[in-house]
Amino acid sequence: MTNPLYDALFGKHAERDTPFLQMTDGTVITHAAFLRLAAQYAHALVQMGVAPGDRVAVQIAKTPQALAVYAACVQAGMVFLPLNTAYTAKEIAYFVQDSGARVVLCDAAAAQALEPVAHANGAQLETLDADGGGSFARRARDLPQVFETQARGIDDLAAFLYTSGTTGRSKGAMLSQGNLLSNGETLAQEWRFTAEDRLIHALPIFHTHGLFVATNVSLLAGGVILFLPKFDLDAILGLMPQATAMMGVPTYYTRLLDDARFTRELAGHMRLFVSGSAPLLAETHVRFEDRTGHRILERYGMTETNMSTSNPYDGARRAGTVGRPLPGVELKITHAETGATLPQGEIGQIEVRGANVFQGYWQMPEKTAQELRPDGFFITGDLGQIDADGYVTIVGRNKDLIISGGLNIYPKEIELILDEHNGVLESAVIGVPHPDFGESVVGVLVASGQEALDLEGIMRDLSGSLAGFKQPKKLVVLPELPRNTMGKVQKNALRAQFAGLFDGG
Ligand code: AMP
User: Fold this and answer.
1) Is 20 within the bounds of a domain?
2) In this predicted model, what pLDDT tens digit does every residue of 27-41 receive, in sequence order?
3) Residues 6+ away with beta carbon under 8 Å from 6
């Protein structure tokens, strides 16, 4: 094979005039048509002087054309660098500068703001709009529809995904062909994807979940992607009777459950619902099964590692757990200070090793060395435990760990108890600076209805179920929790908001 990732994802479909993408208006794009467009894009990039190994930064809407840029980069051996569409020009400046991207592709609406950014960093700017038009499309329009695939090996880089950078600077995770290919193949196999599948795809494609999990798995199996530009409840409900699978973040599933049109009958044609990127409440898992008869399959992964664990396709999908390590992935729980492996059942940091684990952070050897051990284990920054059957439970992020009076407190334990209270929709437990304890526990609650929450009553109940040092010193109520596009609760925003709560004692 000359280019393993291209051949497995795209090349093998080049002659297939079968549907690849089905748009919400019913328009279908075949594999062959898609690859003709990708070939034109590859020619356009080469014409612009982009060479194998160069980075192509892309901040454009979720369109078939955006996916074709991804395919073009893989075929031409360039490094695809997708960027969150919400990033401002100032943020993009960092990514362009840090990555040394040769090209910046953006929507026409952003061109004015990004032109100076590209210029300052010696990159060329082209536009690719949500309707498929723009200067890049014009450049590619008359170029050949066949491109000679650039030879690559599994250790060559295929993509950079920047971490969300909630602590410190965002880091460019370097992902090789082998990282993406091995993980995609494992997932397609574990989740039984075939050419018969029709996947509801509402996730963004600048993130590992929508790009490497949903898109690559579907491409490897040769199925159809029901391609939504973004999460759209009505459209998803409309597509479900003709779909077989869906991948989403937990909020997608709670929004479906909040809609009375989402019934067992509507989900009758589906064979699989996958959740990840943020914790799925056990309660959502149970409600989902009650409503539809389907048990959501929860998996766990991250930008740097692709997917590391999954609940089984056949066998027990356990609510509140992220399942077992995937085939080929080693996972261990270690002590944060000593790095020693902890006995089964204890909480510690999650480390993973396998072909799924990235190549390091771009131009950050010290950061890489801090998190990627010489023996190949990556320190994920997540805290978890493994039960006797090998199922992993995520207890939180290392940085979310609260240390109060020298004692470790895992927010998840308290959140689970708070969530059980009548009238509480969801909760987030954070540590905020406290003059005596260093940090003190604060519970942020969201009410499920209009009625005011009985905070004193909840405090009283907590004192019966939690050791004193774990009990929140304060409960506060917000209309909703701050979340990013992947459904993750932004605890850093909450910590900032409530940082002064205990000022003055
Ligand atoms: P990202 O790199 O943006 O994909 O974020 C990865 C992080 O999301 C992980 O390190 C976890 O903290 C979190 N995450 C992903 N999947 C799950 C899951 N199923 N349950 C809990 N947290 C998850």
Assistant:
1) no
2) 999 999 999 999 999
3) 71, 74, 75, 149, 152
